[in-house]
Write a structure and sequence with these properties.
It is built from 1 helix and 8 strands. By secondary structure, the chain is mainly beta. An 8-stranded antiparallel barrel has the order 1-2-3-4-5-6-7-8.
Amino acid sequence: MKPFTKIASILLGLIIMTSCSNNDGSSPDNTVIAPILDKWWYASYCCNSDIYIHSDGRYEQRDEETNIITDTGNWTLVDEDLAIIKVDYDEGTNQVLSAIWLGFLDIQEHSIAVSQSTDGTNFYEVSLYQDTDKIFP
């Protein structure tokens, strides 16, 4: 093999190896929702579940009174500009729906406003959450 061909083959191999990555879009590092990842968000209203959105793409809900995990699933970022994720619930959870979309309307350092949708288009029920279990003022 000629030296030029050998070098070109090595470079092509390196380009292919570095361009292939395991990026499924579910764990954004530098997006608008990055501040909400990897911590519990406590519901400010009775009867809303606390939520945890893991940076690795996992999602958990727990009962706000008992702290028992009630639902789990996986999430993907479906619209970065509008800060919308889709949660696909695991089988065997208490959920009637197989998926739900969450839109983050107001992301602050310690609080977020979240709307939800059952079809990814029509959002409703804005709920407030904070990253500590203190009551909202």
